[in-house]
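Handout, section B. The chain below has 95 residues.
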Amino acid sequence: MITKNDVAKVFDTILSIPGMNEPVKIDLKISRKNVLLLSHLIEQGLAVENEDSSLMESMSEEEFANLKKIAEECLQKAGLVELNQKLQTLNQACK
């Protein structure tokens, strides 16, 4: 049986492969709806303390910041920054 430590080592090995830190250009055309949903999923995923995800546990603070920046850039390019902020405010009011 594979242990959690074994899985963490595999993820760490994969993330250490030469070239994994090189930037890639992704031409992605998706609807504004999906941009909003993707941004929300990224934010939620980064906020959750998930003990079951060895991949998330192996991420550095810089990698978390980079993912957050990607979500923000997607919102900005789609013109959804203000709408997203208002939705977050509404969501916080419901809690």
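Note. Residues 4-94 form one domain. Compare this with the example in section A.
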